[in-house]
Amino acid sequence: MIRDFVYLRPGTLDEALALLAEHQGECKVIGGGQSLLILMRQGLVSPAYLIDIKHLSELNSIRLDGNDGLSIGATTTHRAIETSGAVKAHFPVLAEMEQNVASIQTRNWGTIGGNLAHADPAGDPGPVLIALDASFKAASAQGERTIGADAFFVDYFETALRDDELLVGIHLPAQQPKSGAAYEKFTIIKNDLSVASVAASITVDDSGKCTNARIALGAVAPTPHRAIESEQDLLGQSMSEELLDRLSDKASQAAKPISDIHASEDFRRHLVKVLTARMVAKAWKRAIAST
Amino acid sequence: MTVNGQFYEVYANPKRLLVEVLRDELGLTGTKRACDTASCGACTVILNGLTVKSCSVLAVQAQDAVITTVEGLAPGGRLSPLQQSFLDHGAYQCGFCTPGMLISATVLLQEKPNPNRREIQEGIHGNLCRCTGYNSIIRAISAAASGEQRQEGQ
């Protein structure tokens, strides 16, 4: 049963930030509400004020910048990202990831900003955006600041946003030449929340050696996080089975999974190992095939 | 909000869900309320051209929206080709998932007029049939896409 709240519908981002400053600590911001409403119905969250930003068109956009970086506004829906030509052309891994987020109905209404601010450790966009070295733009009535994707998630369902701050958008830097990325999640039922997930982004030089690597693990710790030792193992190396075996072992050790109804800790570590080897190999192959 | 072509002015507590307003205020009980956690899809409606789960949308967020519920698929009581096809193929057992299935399939056929089996499966992925009658549902959608449904009265 949802408890009563005061509904606030700002007409602009500035109005939203003013309301957030006024009611910080006793309000929640709602985008599509695809996660928030479930928590409110369960009585886990019962804000006195609900600030609705879903309709703010100034935050609803997907824009390529001059250098082929991509900016996505916070109220952009999952479905808009999934079907965007610019996303498919420049960051195909993002569109692939979105195809497997929940159901069409949820993707039609749920927003990327809401998903990230909800900070479910099993969420899909987090690991992919960390692997792509994205940055998040936070705004408050005081001004704006940028938070790196891997610093945004600080604990279980907690982000680096202050109480008076709103996530207004994300920015993806242009991909280096000869780069590729891949993401896969293991689920019990297709498109369900992940039991474990891995995203990898690889850049290679002309001889096929790895010059840059980012690997992010999802659903195996309180937050999505990088497997930094595995990334370091890749630098300057050529692809080999031994290398994949070694770095995926390290990723499995870097994971801090729990046992729950869906999987044991051991099984989650096994999934991290399998998915890391698979995603690094896939991203590498895509990097070599790209221009 | 405009529902099935008719404009409604509704006063509701902001915590009321779209499915509650559709069913309890407007009397449009074709839309079903089942899992209440955005899992089953029985409450699916078309909102500004896109399917959403009306158990997971605040009614106040749908202000000014254009909505189609299952009642809107059969204006004047004439079944749509897709509805006729569901009848032809017995694409329901208990019938509880049928309104949501029809809504999702209607939008699927608007976006992809000739879907293959896999595209149909993906199109109704967000709708559960607890009777597990998926095969007849997929056959019905496929037949409607090829215009194979019977004419009324036949």
User: What composes the largest sheet of chain A?
Assistant: 5 strands, antiparallel
Shape of chain A: globular
What pattern of helices and strands is seen along the backbone of chain A?
EHEHEEEHHHHHHEEHEEEEEEEHHH
What's the helix-strand series of chain B?
A: EEHEEEHHHH
User: Span from first to last CA of chain B?
Assistant: 38 Å
Note the main sheet of chain B.
5 strands, mixed
Question: Given the helix and strand composition of chain A, which structural class is it?
Answer: alpha+beta
Question: Which tags fit this structure?
Answer:
heterodimer; A: 291 residues; alpha+beta; Uridine Diphospho-n-acetylenolpyruvylglucosamine Reductase, domain 3; Enolase-like, domain 1; 3 domains; four-stranded antiparallel beta sheet; 14 strands; B: 154 residues; Ubiquitin-like (UB roll); DNA polymerase, domain 1; 2 domains; five-stranded mixed beta sheet; globular
Provide a compact summary of the structure.
The complex is a heterodimer of chains A (291) and B (154). Chain A has 291 residues and is α+β, with helices and mostly antiparallel strands.
